[in-house]
Amino acid sequence: MTGQRIPILRFGAHLLVSIQVDIDDQMAVQLQDDLSMAIVRAGARGVMIDISALDVVDSFIGRILGTIAATSRILDAETVVAGMQPSVAITLVELGLSFKGVRTALNVERGMDLLRAIEREGTTDVDDA
Amino acid sequence: MSTTHEQLPIASSGDVVLVRNAVRTAAERMGFRQIDVTKLVTAASEIARNTLVYGGGGTAQVNCLDGDSRSGVRVVFEDQGPGIPDLQLALREGYTTGRGMGLGLSGSKKLVDEFEIDSEVARGTRVTMTKWR
Amino acid sequence: MKNDGGNLLSEILRGEETDLLAEWLKHQMSAAGMAGRISEEDLREKSRTFLRGFTEATQHGNFTDIDAPEWEKVREVLAEVSKIGARQGLSPAQTATFVFSLKQPLFSRIAVKTTDAGTLAAQLWNLTTLVDQLGLRTTELHQKGREEVINRQQRDILELSTPVVKLWDGIVALPLIGALDSERTQVVMETLLEQIVANSALIAIIDITGVPTVDTLVAQHLLKAVAAARLMGAECIISGIRPQIAQTMVHLGVELHEVVTKASLADAFAVALKRTHRKVMSDRAVEAPRV
After folding, report:
1. What top-level class would CATH report for the domain A8-121?
2. Can you give the pTM of this predicted structure?
3. Continuous segment of H or E residues that includes residue C206
4. How far apart are CA C255 and CA C226, in angstroms?
5. Which of C111, C132, C158 represents a domain boundary (last residue)?
6. What is the side-by-side strand order in the sheet with A8-11?
7. Chain C residues with CB inside 8 Å of B31's CB?
8. Looking at beta carbons, which residues of chain B come within 8 Å of A85?
9. Which one of A20, A75, C39, C291 has the lowest number of neighbouring Cβ atoms within 10 Å?
10. Is the interface score ipTM higher than 0.85?
11. Distance (Å, rounded) from C-alpha C277 to C-alpha A74?
């Protein structure tokens, strides 16, 4: 389990991360580091994180996603978290976790639309996408 | 009337995932709805992490409860860590030690039906959470 | 409570398993019970497992506490049998004949092996108490099974009667009708979220024109659903809030800060169109060839 890294794929100016596996805290922190490096190396403008396979997102993973979004923005890349399952969304609301600053989309396709729209119209207010 | 399952060690972040999986399996076996599986597993994940990070490691015991009128899952976490000095404070919604422990406790409490903490400074902590189907 | 009656029972169970099983099955077949609802093989298998567990358990000498660990195997079979009975629509009594039809074969064997009237009475008493407890447990488990079936059916009905309608590309509407209670609202909201995913909806309109009153709990569930939808990447518009409900919400301190509300579903649809259309227009503007 530990030592496993989540692969980061590149599509032009975008990076795609698909979290398929049971992600533990160490992997999450590793992903955060790997992504920052990858953004700089690739000069990426957008990051797509696909969490459609996750049926549990707890406060730690939630915070990591927020940190990734904030860090990416500083590195001039926008982040979209796509595919949150309804049960996960309901649970996060109950937990009271704030996802402010993280853009979300129903699926990767909508997420790509969103990334393209943001890049076109310049950086819009996060809560106004 | 309960069937006791394994006692799982919590000594690494990989163990937290194993605890999640065990709780998920138990909840699914007891026929929980998806939303309730997610809530219970999330709560278990929070407390398991607390046990690891603040308790210095410990154990989790997953029990399937099959009573006459209802069924559910109970998870008991134990550690011999420093304990929680001010329980009331820690349980208060939104309280955080800066590393998010508060969110784990008060948040988890909302996700399950029964939630008990037994903690003594320098002795350790036991958290018992129960969710009914 | 060990006593002679117990030992005799164990003796019979161990020594005459095959005959006992055959006779018991015959009684089950003639009673209006599980027979006919499950295959004969399944019934035989379950009966055999029960008998084996029963035999082992009685060897411990405990004939009163069927919750003790030695009775676990027996309880498991009862749980399985009850579940089948509940699902098949049998009555609790019918399901319980599984256990009760074991009385006669055991009684007759005990009677044959005992000559002393006093001992016979004691043994039959022990056996009766035991079998009755097991039979009662079966009816309780059956009841629990029935409740689960009913709950599941109710939830299915709730889900089916939650009509989420796709109004346009990326826009769905949920016209709620009738009184909302906490349970119904929760199920409805879960269905809405699933439909948002299924329709890849950017905007969901929750219309409560047809809802007479909204209390704190329902309002909270509504708001949680809106928050959850936003987390997933969809926005909600609540339409059809009547004056009374608006007043109640203010009264109850329900805050709708960031939620867009519109008087009618039509208004909400117009807003939704504008918001999603704007994105569509933007895409087209980029793709349109320069003239």
Report:
1. alpha beta
2. 0.77
3. strand C203-210
4. 12
5. C158
6. A8-11, A14-18, A46-50, A78-82, A103-105
7. 148
8. 38
9. C291
10. yes
11. 31
